[in-house]
Fold these 2 entries.
Entry 1:
Amino acid sequence: MSQDITEALRASLGDSLLTDPADCHTYGYDNSKLQGQPMAVALPTTHEQVVAVVRACYEHDTPLLARGQGTGTTGATVPLDRQSVIISMHRMNRLIELDRDNRLVVVEPGITNQQVQQTAAGQGFFWPPDPTSAAVCTVGGNLAYNSAGPRAVKYGTPRENTLGLCIVTGDGRTLRTGVRTTKGVVGYDLTRLMIGSEGTLGIITEATLKLTPLQPAKRTLRAEYRDMHSAAKAVANIMASPVTPCALEFMDGNAIDMVRDELAGRLASDTGALLIIEVDGLASQIDELAEQVSDSAKTTGCLAVHQASNEAEVAALWDVRKALSPALRRVAPKKINEDVVVPVSCIPVLVDRLSEFSKTHGIHIVNFGHAGNGNLHVNLLYNPDDAGQQKRAEACLEDVFSTVLELGGTLSGEHGIGLVKRDWVAKEIGPDSLQLMHAIKRQFDPKGILNPGKALPPID
Amino acid sequence: MSQDITEALRASLGDSLLTDPADCHTYGYDNSKLQGQPMAVALPTTHEQVVAVVRACYEHDTPLLARGQGTGTTGATVPLDRQSVIISMHRMNRLIELDRDNRLVVVEPGITNQQVQQTAAGQGFFWPPDPTSAAVCTVGGNLAYNSAGPRAVKYGTPRENTLGLCIVTGDGRTLRTGVRTTKGVVGYDLTRLMIGSEGTLGIITEATLKLTPLQPAKRTLRAEYRDMHSAAKAVANIMASPVTPCALEFMDGNAIDMVRDELAGRLASDTGALLIIEVDGLASQIDELAEQVSDSAKTTGCLAVHQASNEAEVAALWDVRKALSPALRRVAPKKINEDVVVPVSCIPVLVDRLSEFSKTHGIHIVNFGHAGNGNLHVNLLYNPDDAGQQKRAEACLEDVFSTVLELGGTLSGEHGIGLVKRDWVAKEIGPDSLQLMHAIKRQFDPKGILNPGKALPPID
């Protein structure tokens, strides 16, 4: 069988098909550290080749997984079956059209987020989604996970910033979804259904992205708080005020402790939580906007608000946040990094509970993330090679997820589900909804060949 | 059969079921002027009653149409079959919760848009969708059609401003879709799939709406242009600049002519197009924001930009626009009002083509609408009781729709499809997409009882 499918793929792809196990190996992992071995890797450069690949896989009942640059953290692009074909979209990386007057850009999915930003900036625009991995991650991947980043607090996620898609379904049909305009209500919204579906419904071959004008000025502030309770009050206060920040990031006390040395006394010693806040606007107005947001940030328990007045000071304010990831990796290279979301007002409750769980399970937990969206990156620092620690971390994670759901939150804000959170989905989504989602998938992908076993838990 | 279903409905609804033909008659129309006669009208007050109504209709294979206040313009709530049951949601009109810290409001679908705005305003917020009928139209209707209004140009449509829904599917399952947070990527996006589906997938019994902080100040401007070409250049220019207006409305030359007398010389005589522009922001900054947008509006062909400096002047600027609808109704009470959308840069091409069609078909056409979204309300003024005129109007509409699609536009921006545009949908959406949409509908509504024959054209 693997001979047949390989020949079918070769016929449309020629040299753009990898079958040597060593070549294939490098396409079988993502940033979850999970690894699988695909049978073949397709490297299409055209929509027609994608159609041919899907049809060949459909014909031969072969699992097909689309991937970009492998920056995902959930194993969504890791093959579970050694008969799988990976379709790597990184060669379909053209920017097809930038239409200033209609504020849109048409791209292929393999283009990096950064390339889009650079080209758009040349015309005075940006595309709001800005994951930390923007320099290397692809737009296709951003759409697959609905990946956002700090700017989502003001400008939204891919679902709010994508006008239309061209996709290939699991049986090789080509569909154009959505519109080229910012309004449209003809037929059902298949564009948003595709976004966040992790390659389980179709393979995106083109995307029409909505652009937003760049603001001429930005100001960065760091607000320090006694504890997360006072920081969360400030977040709610800021979000209820007319000046919506374009970033509203937080770090809890444990996160601050990780980098306290590197901050060389720049933080007050009793700082138990901090916010990094950015506002954007017209250059002539940015002082007042920063002043307003600074006022909103000064709730009870606020120890200090620092404002950067030049580029070097901006860099210094972000240093705290940027020093964190390397520090975490030094302590625990195989840490679990979750990206749960809770209503903003529940952030302090969650952080308190996480502190309890940390004690109960003996796992060090460090939290930071996108406060304005209630999106917490919960980092469990442990050594998975220690069986005891591994078991305690799993039990701890179970408590974390249960608490998130109890607080009316959701298991993932921007990383997606993939493999690693898949078995948790049924705790958030009821059995009827889950069955309906599977039924919808079957309409797109009748044989279930597209990224099987990901995103949704299997049902009976 | 009608006896059986009536008894089943009576069992759960008691007095909240209307069966007298005269009572039912008033629930069989909408603002399309179409009218049908339902067999019964259910007036539920609880989610459980909605479930009971759906189950009874499912059991008895009876068409079921949800409606709000009947302000829709497409016949989407008009029964096609005399055995239909109407479920009128207007008694489910509670505001369940307003959560300031999490910027959301939970409502039942029968609440009016205005009630939501009033309650939200008390806490310093608004819900962006603002159809002209806001005073009477329901949130459920806004969600069913993805109805927006002028503010969408800055703040988006219901799809960008709804976090989650509670729905009842066509076989009586209750599903909770979405989240209570502004990020979330667990499972497929059923919330947006529901929005704009015109009651064909499920009946909404509760909606969690995302609120936005009110801006303290607003400024209104009227910009006059020689023709639509120069006005459209200004629109593109404004939309590419950092200050995005919160309304960007236009009127073409014919629209201006309709109200020129009432303007008593306030417009320059050679004004061939005008824009009404609103900006919002901090009170201390609004002058500069208005100045910036005014600068962006001053493209070649701009004759004048007037800025209101007080409430009376704001009213005077809007008078032009508001005088239009009554004037149109006086001339042609049964006019066709379309709401096509084209890319902003194509507005002048469309307006020119409309002018040609007007001559070819002998039908007077007046255009106004939401320029920032490319959303044109194309009004065909004619007398449908005159068979010749009716035929010419239909032929004209055919040309209008073909042109819109040729320009990369869409048939509806905010009115939806209902019955009146249904047979046009297949020209915009390819057969594969249409089949997939029908297949998706079957997963929500296996017997096809929910608003049959609406929104999507039938397929073989």
Entry 2:
Amino acid sequence: MIIAVDGMGGDFAPSEVVLGCVEAIKEFNDIKIIITGNEELILKELHKYKYDTNKISVIDAKEVIDPNEPPVMAIRRKKDSSLVKALNLVKQKEAHGIISAGSTGAFMAGALFIVGRIKGIDRPALAPVMPGKNAPFMVIDVGANAECKPKNLLQFALMGKIYFEKILKVENPSVGLINIGTEEEKGNELTKATYSLLKESGLNFVGNIEPREIPKGDVNVLVCDGFTGNTVLKMFEGTAATLFDVLKDEITGSTLGKVGGLLLKPAFKNIKKKFNYKEYGGAAFLGVDGICVKAHGSSDSLAFKNAIKQCIIFHNNNILNNIKEEIIKSNHIQNIDAMDII
Amino acid sequence: MIIAVDGMGGDFAPSEVVLGCVEAIKEFNDIKIIITGNEELILKELHKYKYDTNKISVIDAKEVIDPNEPPVMAIRRKKDSSLVKALNLVKQKEAHGIISAGSTGAFMAGALFIVGRIKGIDRPALAPVMPGKNAPFMVIDVGANAECKPKNLLQFALMGKIYFEKILKVENPSVGLINIGTEEEKGNELTKATYSLLKESGLNFVGNIEPREIPKGDVNVLVCDGFTGNTVLKMFEGTAATLFDVLKDEITGSTLGKVGGLLLKPAFKNIKKKFNYKEYGGAAFLGVDGICVKAHGSSDSLAFKNAIKQCIIFHNNNILNNIKEEIIKSNHIQNIDAMDII
């Protein structure tokens, strides 16, 4: 498998990106990595390590896309950016997949325009797997589509299910609809119409899931529009960060607290590890015709190595073809239904 | 001031409701309370305490609305319920305000149909004040309106601002728009159109606020549609609950952890107090023509007493008239604008 890596994306690029790539080719067989970006900087990093030089190559790219740039314009104008060059490798079938820790907006816009959608998927969706109390869960979409139609959410459910089955090896994954009440008639127009679609979909649909239940991780795939998913993701991060801040203030505020905090250090470490996104690789951008993984902006080499691992599992399990087959099947069903109605 | 209290609503009704009322008339002067509900049960509770019997009266109501009943139907059919009778007291100006810890849906439907809207307010909104790290903040709306128009959110902002100014004594409160990006052009159609309205509103509008920032409590009033607000509220509760669960498991999982946990007991107690919704009373249902406060379903006597205090401050600061005056002013401005365009 050949993986294109945007060498300049993310808070710790290119040093942590390069180190992640070096560690990955040592750990995983049969992969080659192409790093795009400022050749001089990247080679300087690479020269710090001993590695099989046949397995990592560099393609020079003079431009870098800033996370604050308007995404679509950045993709159109910066043809010589590390991101656009990496995406082009996927488009031209010179790489099977791409990883970037840079601008999420530019990544999604670029994947959409350069790599393109899978036929039959109307809206690709960003789908991170997050750590829950009892098990990891996926929220799909977390921001690619601020406005959605019920059909989009049905396709998100289908893609999420395939991902969970093939990558996380969960048999018949459960699918929930994020909603503000558990009853079928609750919510807005989108959730009401989506509920009916999911109920008839043949998926293991477990009904509406209130946001309060999400962090427990009892449901595998949680579908919603991108505005809601982004809100869920950021409230999850924000609430956890605030609580740990408050806890830290309390602990360091008294001698008793400091001693208690010291004794609980292993406990806090376990919790931190449990909720560490780095263990999960990146967020897959599902529905585009290539393996596109968005790594967290603050990814270190471990996060990069795991994102590369995620690409390999994605590739070896033929997820793209699985999605293509399932979408044809589901469209076939939809067409029959439409004919029945006529 | 006369306050109607739904004696049968909430997980701990009527015992905690009654105790809260008894404590309130001892602490606050110049109030009278009318408790609606099963007279026999309520009198039995009242007889446990010594109190000024001139200040609490009971109106018998044979029916109770269950939280699982469809709200509108429950309000229409159960005319002899504790909630409907309490709402009628407000409608007939026999009470200035009402508090209920029962079904949120029935409470909002009843307040809307029985008490009625303030003229000029298109959609009343449920507006809890929540504990943030640095200061309390309000999210408006958290579930009364799953679908909203930009104008609704502008009115939410106006009402939230008055509440913060008059009840929480914050001068020129800041107003933020909950959105999935900080830039003006981010979000869905609703947030984009609302941004323009808020920018021109004359309110202390601080722009888009990403959900990640909400728990910090740096912005006073956060406006959004009810679907988003409900998601924010429930993710806040759910993430906190899950994290404390995980922490508890870690602490009780080892001897070292147990000792550490014991030493940190005061710290945990402080945090619990800091994030205790009971200190804040209930969620005001703003935009109806009466003081309507929804207490948390699991309210104890302290939460009830604080909800009563909230009603008193609401009343003494003339919030309803303030909202009426501001809405006339703002509609006046809107009309002038409309004329300018023509």
